[in-house]
Amino acid sequence: MGKTLFQKVWDRHTVGILPDGSTQLFVGTHLIHEVTSPQAFGMLRDLGLKVAFPSRTFATVDHIVPTDQRTEPFRDSLADAMIKELRKNCSEFGVTFFDIPSGKQGIVHIVGPEQGITQPGTTIACGDSHTSTHGAFGAVAFGIGTSQVRDVLATQTMALSPLKVRKIEVRGKLGPGVYAKDIILHIIRTLGVNGGTGYAYEYCGSTIEGLSLEERMTICNMSIEGGARAGYVNPDEKTFEYLKGRPYCPKGKDWDTAVAEWKKFVSDADAVYDDVKIFEASEIRPTVTWGINPGQGIFIDEAIPSPEQLPEADRASAKEALEFMKFKAGEKLAGQKIQVAFFGSCTNARISDFLEASKFLKGRKVAPGIRAIAVPGSQGVSKICAEMGIDKIFREAGFDWREAGCSMCLGMNPDQLVGDEICASSSNRNFKGRQGSPTGRTLLMSPVMVVAAAVTGQVSDARQVFANS
Amino acid sequence: MLARFSQIPKSMSLSPIAQVTGRGVVVAGDDIDTDRIIPARYMRCITFDGLGEYLFRDVRQTPEGKSTNHPIDDLKYKGATILISGMNFGCGSSREHAPQAIARAGFKAVIAGGFAEIFFGNSTTLGLPCATATRKDLTALISIIQKDPTTLVKIDVQKLQVTAGSLNFPITLKASAQQGLLSGRYDAIADLLTNLPKVKELAGRIPSATAS
Question: A119 and A254: one domain?
Fold first, then answer.
C-alpha cells in the first residue's frame, strides 16, 4: 500500500512517541518573526535554555514594519521595541536575521521560498498560521503557537498528532480571468471554513500541475482558512526549476543529490487518502467574499445568498455577516462602491501577482477618491518589480507603492482601514476588524480583481473591465 | 533526566488538571476567530503580560471606547471562569496571544461546539482545556446559564462530562490532550528535552537549508 507525501515526510521526521500519545516531530526549518517569537525567547531565558540548532532557524520582520517611513526609531514605539527585541534575540542566540538593511526582508512566507530556504520533503514550522504556504514546494509546513516556537527553538522538535490527508483534485483548464485565488476561495466556500479541521490538504490534478509555484503558494497559503493546518502540492520539475540557484539551495553535485532525494517525497500512485474531493476548473469563476469569514464567498455574477438558502449550520454566521457588512441578501457585489484597494499580503504579493495585474493596470487610473496601496511581499519582489518597471505602472495609475511587509492584511502597522470603509483586498482574511478598524469591511478577491475595483471604484468583474486589454 | 528537571524550572512541573469548576459566560456565535479574541493591533508587545485586558476588545467597546455591555463585562457573569461559545472557536491566526488573553482574563476552560486546531493546541499547552460539546447540549447549557448565571459548571476531564445544575452531557477532548491534562504533561517541553540525544542523531540525517 502506497503512502502520501505527508506520511513519508512525517515518518522521516518522527523522533518518537511522547507519553501523551502525540508524536515528537523534528522540524527541518524554523521561521520566526517579531510578533510571535519574543515571548518564546523570553521563555528560553527563563528556563536557562539555548537554541538547539540555530542554523535551522531564520528570522525576518514583517507584521509591524511601517511600509512608508522606515527610519528608526519607528514612530510607533511599540513596533520599534519589537524590531529591536528580534534583533537582540537573533544576535544573542545566533539566528540568521533578514533585517531591513539586508535587502532580503519581507513577509516570512515570501522570503523563505525566495531565498530557497523552503525545500521539498522537509517539515517547516513558523509561529504564523499561513505557514501552510510552504507546502507549495512539497514541504509539510505547520503554523504554531508561541509555546511551540519555544519548543522548536529549544529542541528543534514539537509535539503534534498526525493529520489525516484529504486529496483535493482540481482538473481541467481555468477560464480567462480566473486565478489561483479563485480556486482556493471556491474550495473553502465549498468545503467550509472548518471542513479541513484534522486534515492536511493535498492539492493535485491537472489544474494544479499547470500552476506556477507562486500560484501554488497562493492556494497552499489559504489552507488554514479552510481549517486545514497544512496544505501541499507534490514537488515536480517546476518546483526544482524554481529552487535552482537560490541562495540557500544546494549547488553543483549537491544539487543533483538533493533533487534525487526530493523526488522520493511525493505521494505514491496507490497512496490511500482519508478523503477525496474533486473540483472542475471550468466551473470556477472570479470569486469575492461578502461576509466575515473566507468561506462566505460568491462568484462575481452571483447574488449574496439569504441565510435561509444556506445549510442550517451556516445561517447564524451568515446573518451576523450581513448585519456587519451592511449588505442585503439578493444583492450583487458587482457595483458595490469601495473606498480602499489593498494589493499585498503573503497570499498575493509575489512578482507574478504584480506582473499579471500590471498588464491590466497599465495606462489606467485609480478612480477618484479611492485609497489604493500596493505592498510588495519582500524587498526581493520590490527590487524585481522596479527592474521590470512594474512599480512605475502602479504609481502612475495612482497606487501608493510601499516597502515590503504584511501591512493592511492585518493592520498591525499604520496601514489600517478607517471606520466602516470597504476594502477590495488581495489578502486572506475578512474577519471583523481584521484590517485595523473594528468596523472595517474586507472583500477578498484576486489581485486582478483588486485592480479592477481600484480603477472603477467599485467591485467589478475584471473580465469585463479589461475586456479589451 | 529527572535530576535535570529538578534544576530546571518550576514551570516545567505542572499539576494535573482533572476537573474545572466555575461559573460560565456565553460568548455566542460560530467561527469566532482569533482576531476577534484579540485584535492584531493589541499584539504589539514583547511579553504576554496584561493581554487579558484586550480580550474581545473590539466587541466589548465601541470605536469611541464606550462599553457595549458585552457578556464578559456584564455584572451578571462577573467571576465566570468557563467561556462558552459556538462552532469552530479560535479559527484563523495561530496567535497564542488569543488563549493567553483568555487565560489572563481569568478563564480556566472553554466549552464550544468545536475548535480550530492550532488554537486547541495552544490552549492545551497553557493548561486551558477546550471541551467540545454537541450543539444540542450547548444550547441546553447556554439556556441554564442565562437563566441562572450562578450555576456552577463542572468539566470532568477524566470522565469527559459536563455537569451544570440538573444538566449532564458528554464532551469530547482529543486523547493526547486529555492524557496531558490528567498527567500534568500538557506542556510538552520537558518531554521534548528528554529526547534531545535522539533528536541530535536524527538531525544528522535531515538536510538543512544552508547558504552556499
Answer: yes
| pLDDT tens string A413-444 | 999 999 999 999 999 999 999 999 999 999 99
With CA atoms as reference, the chain A residue closest to B191 would be A18
A257 and A297, same domain (yes or no):
no
Q: Do A248 and B209 touch (CB under 8 A)?
A: yes
Q: Which domain-ending residue is among A262, A278, A305?
A: A262
- What SS3 state is found at A202? strand
Element holding A221 (H helix, E strand):
helix A213-221
Interchain pair B206, A28: CB under 8 A: yes
Closest residue on chain B to A228 (Cα)? B117
- Judged by CB atoms closer than 8 Å, whether chains meet at A433 and B58 is answered as yes
The structural domain count of chain B equals 1
Q: Kindly state whether residue A269 falls inside one of the protein's structural domains.
A: no
Tell me the C-alpha distance between A346 and A375, whole Å.
10
- Mutation target for B interface from A137, A147, A255: give the one with most B CBs within 10 A: A147
* A318 and A183 in a common domain: no
Look at A198 and B117 and tell me if their CB atoms are within 8 Å.
Answer: yes
Sort out which chain A residues have CB atoms less than 8 A from B186's CB and list them: 20
Among candidates A154, A434, A437 on the partner chain, residue whose Cβ is nearest the Cβ of B193: A154
pLDDT tens digits, A116-134? 999 999 999 999 999 999 9
Same domain, A10 and A57: yes
pLDDT for residue B7 is more than 50: no
Q: Cβ B41–A436 below 8 Å, yes or no?
A: yes
Q: Assess if residue B64 is contained within a domain.
A: yes
> Which of chain B's residues have a Cβ under 8 Å away from the Cβ of A405?
none
Residues B42 and B99 sit within 8 Å (Cβ to Cβ): no
Go through A407-445 and write b for each residue having 16 or more CB atoms within 10 A of its CB, e for each that does not: bbbbbbbbbbbeeebbbbbbbbbbbbbbbbbbbbbbbbb
pLDDT digits (tens, 9 = 90+) for A306-318: 999 999 999 999 9
pLDDT attached to residue B212: 77
Q: What share of chain B has pLDDT > 90, as a percent? A: 91
> Does A438 reside within a domain?
yes
pLDDT given for residue B63 in this prediction: 84
Contact criterion met (CB < 8 Å) for B208 and A82: no
pLDDT digits (tens, 9 = 90+) for A64-99: 999 999 999 999 999 999 999 999 999 999 999 999
Q: Are A38 and A78 in contact (CB under 8 A)?
A: no
Nearest to A179 by CA among A359, A305, A382: A359
C-alpha to C-alpha distance for B133 and B170, rounded to whole angstroms:
7
| Mean pLDDT score, A297-311 | 97
In-domain check, residue A46: yes
Q: Do B176 and A320 touch (CB under 8 A)?
A: no
Q: How far is A16 from chain B (nearest CA, A)?
A: 8
Could B9 and A39 be called an inter-chain contact, meaning their C-beta atoms sit closer than 8 Å?
no
CA distance A28 to chain B (A): 6
Looking up residue A444, the CATH number of its domain turns out to be 3.30.499.10
Which among A82, A42, A30 is positioned nearest to A61, based on CA atoms?
A: A82
CATH number of domain containing B94 = 3.20.19.10
Pick B176's closest partner by Cβ from A21, A156, A416. A21
**ipTM over cut 0.95:** yes
What count of Cα atoms within 13 Å lies in the side-chain half-sphere of residue A431?
28
* pTM passes above 0.95: yes
| A270 found inside a domain | no
Please count the structural domains in chain A: 2
